[in-house]
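Human:
Care to share another protein and its fold?

Assistant:
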Amino acid sequence: MSDWIMEAFLIQYPYIITFAMLAVCIYAIVLKSNLIKKILGLTIMIDVVNLFLILTGYRRAQGPIPPIYPSPEQVQMVVERAVDPLPQALVLTAIVIDMCVTAFAIALVIRIYRAYGTLDVRKIRELRG
């Protein structure tokens, strides 16, 4: 019985770590008052979501292989062991979008700092009135 539990844990531990990292990022975004910490939490959260997408496309077969069809006879082997390329393509697009969102957020933080002289959300709310 304990071997079954250990095997299930080894299969699920990447997902457990991913959701734990997601919880830490949500904590940083919601409860921290510094805007730079919020941006870092957002950026890491997007990377964690990308990691989760890559994990969903991974196959635990005997030696996963890329989805390239070498010959018609090997198509069944490729279907059983190939890694799904769709999550990888989605992650490539998400990385570009993440860079744009981060650059825009940093530009907004720079403008806020120039206008209010602080990066603390509570102080900015007080100064704004």
Notes: The mean pLDDT is 84. The helical segments are 2-31, 35-57, 75-81, 85-116, 121-128. The radius of gyration is 21 Å. The longest helix spans residues 85-116.
